[in-house]
Design a protein that fits this description.
Layout: H1 2-17, E1 21-24, H2 29-41, E2 45-47, E3 57-59, E4 73-75, H3 80-83, E5 88-89, H4 92-103, E6 111-119, E7 128-134, H5 137-146, E8 148-149, H6 151-160, E9 164-169, E10 179-183, E11 188-192, H7 197-200, H8 203-219, E12 222-224, E13 226-232, E14 238-244, H9 251-255, H10 261-266, E15 269-274, E16 278-282, E17 288-291, E18 296-300, H11 310-315, E19 321-323, E20 326-327, E21 333-334, E22 346-347, E23 353-354, E24 368-372, E25 389-397, E26 407-409, H12 413-421, E27 424-426, E28 438-440, H13 453-467, E29 473-477, H14 496-507, E30 513-515, E31 520-522, H15 536-543, H16 547-562, H17 570-583
Parallel strand pairs: 1-6, 3-19, 4-5, 4-10, 7-9, 9-11, 14-25, 25-29
Antiparallel strand pairs: 2-3, 6-7, 6-8, 10-11, 12-16, 13-14, 13-15, 16-17, 17-25, 18-24, 19-24, 20-21, 22-23, 26-29, 27-28, 30-31
Helix pairs in contact: 2-5, 12-13, 12-17, 16-17
The chain binds sulfoacetic acid (SAT) and manganese (II) ion (MN).
């Protein structure tokens, strides 16, 4: 039934788009080798040094196709009010008409690839089947790493009988004619005019977040922009945590954290389950379980180094696609932050020769590596567990130079939902637009929530009501607070372990805390900051709650909440009111 539906759909799309050939992808190694050869021949891929980077390639994108284009991303549902004020909306019939015009004949001279893929581990009841039709071999090569692709997905399709349709064409890569469209009422995606990860790898943000968030609401589960990690304590107990940060705020680094030596010596261990997306649902014991729907990492390259994230470096050593990084004369790659000393010369991400001291970066700030998750040295043995891992804590975080303390814990699930809903962060290079501007990014889902944000928050509260006391504890962190001189107060990276340890202890019912107007914060003894070289003033600054600043925050949140009208859950308005009271 479903494979017939798939064949009909492929025929329909082929009639519309007129490809020269159709290739059904089976996911085999031979297919991958042939595809890589083709990408090298047509100039998309540059093979890297086979010793230093086996089976790895550099790709350069069009210079105006380097990040997600949120302004051209649409939720196409019947009623605009169901997309809500934080999404762009298009009328489904009208946009279908426009898209048909763009897709007509757009694959002439090209191959159309049929890419069946799984989001989720094999043999998991949580796993969904998607099929992407695309004229971009670069997309196929990336999908092969980011998802479980090919025959495995067709087999699952014949069991499940349902798949999410994703149609993609790079078109002419014209930024004026770019559409990333989601049809939550029919579980389908149509993307035109971009070859960039988040716009074109339709399993990732489009299916696993925008559509899945809408499906999860209907079915009683959650799709979240969260890393998943497992922490083993010296007693051998495992605590699983998810964390939501906006794109390019260190999620991949936190997911692959290496504990400081003294923690390792004491028996602490951190393992990665996922670095970007979590699907959460109740298990038979009433707890919330998470799976990572992806099979690879689409990590930000700049800033990643053997010092900041050795696990990511190991993961992307081989079988990796690097996009928009710099190429060294010895066919290795480089990006800002990889080494202290830049190479004496290289080719920049645009293909121009580059020397240290140049006014432009060698690698694009949003340059990426696409690497198999299985290659990560700290990947958890549980990462493909069909039932997922039970979650004890959820962390929210943003990039805030001021106002927001290092860590605090919510008083309740509702209060934690409020902490997530009021997340703000300085914008990074992962989306187009000016970097550094402060914006609200609720649960780091602003660009990824597939329906009305007010309804989404209500869904969070409903999930909390269902899970009761078994729900994860909720925390907020800010690694990015600066002092008056503009220097980061917190070293971050491995030292984030101090904060994780306190969070684990809080989940276990230990871990001392003091109550502040914002939430519970660690006592000085609970968070051992000795040996950090922080002055008492700096330590105080890390945890400072400036009541005047916070009164302004409350006011600002009230304004932010207003746009959600009567779909703002009363519980969230009440939390802002309660915060105002606690501050006075
Ligand atoms: O830009 S992507 O959506 O592909 C990755 C990210 O921003 O998390
Ligand atoms: Mn992301």
């Amino acid at each position: 039934m479903s494979s017939i539906e798939l064949e009909h759909w492929v025929d329909d799309v082929a009639r519309l788009t007129s490809p020269d050939r159709i290739q059904w992808c089976d996911g085999s190694a031979a297919e991958s080798d042939a595809l890589n050869r083709l990408l090298v021949e047509n100039g998309t891929f540059t093979p890297l040094d086979p010793q230093r980077h086996p089976n790895s390639f550099l790709a350069r994108s069009a210079i105006n196709d380097v990040s997600r284009t949120e302004g051209q991303t649409y939720i196409c549902c019947s009623r605009p009010e169901d997309a809500g004020p934080t999404n762009n909306w298009k009328n489904p019939q009208e946009i279908q008409h426009t898209l048909r015009g763009l897709f007509r004949g757009c694959m002439r001279g090209r191959t159309m690839y049929v890419v069946p893929y799984l989001m989720g581990p094999p043999n998991s009841p949580h796993t969904r089947v998607g099929v992407e039709l695309t004229d971009s071999p670069y997309v196929v090569a990336n999908m092969r790493i980011m998802t479980r692709m090919g025959q495995i997905a067709l087999d699952e399709l014949s069991r499940q009988g349902h798949f999410v349709k994703g149609l993609h064409s790079i078109g002419l890569l014209d930024p004026q004619e770019r559409y990333i469209c989601h049809f939550p009422e029919e579980d389908s995606i149509i993307s035109f005019g971009s070859n960039y990860g988040g716009n074109a790898l339709l399993g990732k943000k489009c299916l696993a977040l925008r559509l899945a968030s809408a499906i999860g609401r209907r079915e009683g589960w959650m799709a979240e922009h969260m890393l998943i990690l497992g922490i083993t304590d010296p007693q051998g107990r495992k605590t699983y945590i998810t964390a939501a940060f906006p794109s390019a705020c260190g999620k991949t680094n936190l997911a692959m954290l290496i504990p400081p030596p003294e923690y390792q010596a004491a028996g602490w261990k951190v393992e990665t389950i996922g670095d970007d997306i979590a699907w959460l649902r109740f298990g038979p014991d009433g707890r919330l379980y998470a799976i990572n729907p992806e099979a690879g990492f689409f990590g930000v390259a700049p800033g990643t180094s053997p010092l900041t994230n050795p696990n990511a470096m190991a993961a992307c050593r081989s079988n990796t696609i690097f996009t928009n990084v710099a190429l060294c004369p010895d066919n290795t790659v480089w990006w800002e932050g990889l080494t202290q000393e830049p190479p004496a010369e290289c080719i920049d991400w645009m293909g121009n020769s580059w020397k240290p001291g140049s006014t432009t970066p060698a690698a694009h700030p949003n340059s990426r590596f696409t690497a198999p998750a299985s290659q990560c040295p700290c990947i958890s043995p549980d990462w493909e567990r069909p039932e997922g891992v039970p979650i004890s804590a959820i962390i929210f975080g943003g990039r805030r130079a001021s106002v927001m303390p290092l860590v605090h814990q919510a008083f309740s699930w509702q209060h934690g939902t409020f902490l997530g809903a009021t997340m703000t962060s300085e914008k990074t290079a992962a989306a187009t637009g000016p970097v550094g501007v402060l914006r609200h990014d609720p649960m780091a889902m602003l660009p990824f929530c597939g329906y009305h944000m007010g309804d989404y928050w209500q869904h969070w509260l409903d999930m909390g009501a269902r899970g009761g006391d078994l729900m994860p504890r909720i925390f907020h962190v800010n690694w990015f607070r600066k002092d008056a001189q503009g220097r980061y107060l917190w070293p971050g990276f491995s030292d984030n372990m101090h904060v994780l340890k306190w969070i684990v202890e809080r989940c276990q019912g230990t871990g001392a805390a003091v109550t502040t107007p914002l939430g519970d914060m660690p006592t000085a003894e609970a968070l051992n900051l000795e040996g950090f070289g922080l002055s008492p003033e700096q330590q105080a600054e890390l945890f400072k709650v400036d009541r005047d600043e916070w009164r302004l925050e409350v006011h600002e949140r009230e304004k932010f909440f207003r746009q959600f009208g009567d779909r703002l859950p009363a519980g969230l308005r009440a939390e802002n009111e309660a915060l105002r009271q606690r501050l006075s």
